[in-house]
Structures are given as C-alpha cells and as structure tokens.
Amino acid sequence: MIDIQICDWLMDNADAPIRYRVARELLKDEKVTKKIESELFENPAVRLWFGNLAFKPVTRLECRNMVHGSFDYCIENAMQKVVQLGLHGGLPHLVDAAGLHIKALKENPAGRLFRNSENDLKTSYGYGGFNSVLTANMLCMADIQNTNIISYMLGSLDELYAFVSRGDYEIYITEEERAELKGVPPNWEGTEYFIKPDLIKNHGFCYPLIHDIRGLYKLYGVHGAETDKKIDAVIDYISNDDFHSKIPSGYGILITDKRIYHGMGWDPKYPGWFDVTHYVNDSINRSAPNGSHTENQPCFVPKLLFFAMNIVNYPTALKTRWFADLLDCLDKYKTENSTYKFPKEWLPEKQGYAVGGLHMSFGENRRKKNWLEIESTFYIQLLKQSI
After folding, report:
1. Per the count of CB atoms within 10 A, which of 229, 288, 358, 384 is most buried?
2. 108 and 235 share a domain?
3. Can you give the pTM of this predicted structure?
4. Domain count, the chain
C-alpha cells in the first residue's frame, strides 16, 4: 500500500539513501534509481558504513569479532546498515566489500549439520555454527547471488523446518536434571531455562534465531512452493502465544559437552507480543527526564521498530493481532500533513547491536530540521508497503 504523494514528498526532502530506496523499492523507477546511484555512494553515512563492511581485521580481537559483536565492523551491524542505506547485491562495490565473508562461508562438509555448533566451517575469523547462520543470512539479506550462500541457506532452512514441524516448545531440561548440574556460574543459579544438551549436540542451533528472520524471506518465490512452505512454518512457530510464554527472552542457557555454560540470546520474539501499546508506553514511562532510554530496559521501542522492519517481510506476521496493533500505535504519530514524526529517541544511531535497535538511522543529515519527520515517514512506508 504505497502512498504516491508521500513518496513524492520523500523524494523532494530526503537525502540520497532514502530517495534511492523510494525510487528503487517503492516507485520501482529504474531510470531515477540509476540517476541517484552515484550520489548514493558519495553520501557520508554510506561511505562510513561501506568502510565498516570492507574492514580488514589485523588484531586477534578484530579477527575474532568480524561476524558477531557490537562493533561497527561486525557483519551483523555493517551489512544491516549498508542495506538499510540502500546498497544491495546488484552493486558490484557491495559484493567486493563483503568478499571476506563470502569467501569464508564455504560449502558445508558432507554429513555435517549446517547449524551445528561443532561443524568444520571454522577459520581464523570464527565462522562455524552460530556465526555461519548469521553470516549466510546477512549475505542473503543483501541479495548477493552466490551458490554457496544459497546452498547454506536452503540446508539451514531444512533443519529449521524439521525442528519447528514438531511444534515442540519444551526445549529445557527437567528440574531433576538441573539439580545434577555442576559448575553453574553464580549468576545463573536458580534459573529454570537450561537448553537440553542433546538438542544442540544432535541438531545444532535448530530453533529459529533473530538472524534467520533477517534473511530467510529472500528465499521466497525463487526456490519453489516447498521452500515457501518451510519458511512459513518457521514464522508460524514463533508467531503464537506458546512461543512467547514458554520460551524466555534470550532462549536460556546453553550447555556444551565440556559443561561450559553460555547465555544463548538472539531469540526472534515479537517485542510486545501480548500488548504492543503497553510495551511502547512502558518504554516511554521508563525514559529519563531528558527523554533518553537504553536498550537494557525491558521495553525498548527501537528494538520493537527494528523487529517490525524485518518481520513485515513474512505474510504470516502481517495477519497477527500484533501487527495491526503496532500500526494503530504508530498512527498516533501521524501529522496533519499525513507524514509521521516519532520521538527522536526511537531512531538512535550509536555503537551496539543492530538487532537491539541501536542503528535505526536511514542516513539523513541530522542537522536538517526535518530529519526526524523524513526518517519516521519512510519507516512507516516500509511497513505499509507489505500490506
């Protein structure tokens, strides 16, 4: 549901990243898109994040954090940002910048699980298991056409589908088994949510992760009806009350074969699933007097907006009560000119995890008086184009 007048307003007011995306994705005007392309690469935000994606690690710390982490050069943040700013796999510059990650995501060894935490997809940059899931989804999200990427994504989807088809939300060990655990870190003593070790050992990270939501939708419509069915099943698994009531935030605690404990994190729960309005209001009420709030709060609107920006790519999500309530909630920020203007704290741009909502800017020059109105309005257009 594209509002042509609003698109025209964005084309008249926005900087290159939003104008490029409006022309390419909303208006589908190839001539205008091509015209803006050179301006896009000169945009300061694009140049900054393009450099982060193309970053070459030198130190051991940098090598270890090229995939997952809060640094700007981690692919989970850098790729999210360049795509958010309009870049895509049809631009050779982007493919070149992602070369390290494309090369590292090698074909899965025969007989190994794609999502296994102990597979052979490990290099000095830390690829393997969770990191490979993350990397493949980031590359797929960017529309980078590569046989290894697609092979990995389809193999990973098969394993996701096999798990979610069981409809099993009982993924934790029993109370008796918890009592037998040794060496549990003090901060996790008393928790109920230790993931069954055999689940990870035999099936890898078989349950959906937030990073899967970022890339799976790119497989829709190009790999057959059976693939579309599997994607829908994954989204169905997370789009219900059982998932949100039985699975805690972060999934729980992972136990390795060596009895090492890790906080799992990265669940794909809908922020405010049971009450979006309460989630938003609670976030506002917890804000400091100056209007600021942090990603560590139980309710953090930027995280909600980030999730919404990704989940709208799935038809099942658009049919939920959550999505309808979200649109109603955001409509309160509609202006008399049919544009939108969110609280500026809802579109932060600072170092941290993109999945946590810390990189919500679409590249507008924030010295402009109307930057907030432009980014808020474009955000709403991204949500409503899927309807």
Report:
1. 358
2. yes
3. 0.93
4. 3
Domain that holds residue 1: 1-42
Q: Is there a single domain that holds both residue 116 and residue 213? A: yes
pLDDT in tens, 95-137: 999 999 998 887 666 566 888 765 433 443 444 578 889 999 9
pLDDT for 369-378, tens place per residue? 999 999 999 9
- Is there a single domain that holds both residue 308 and residue 228? no
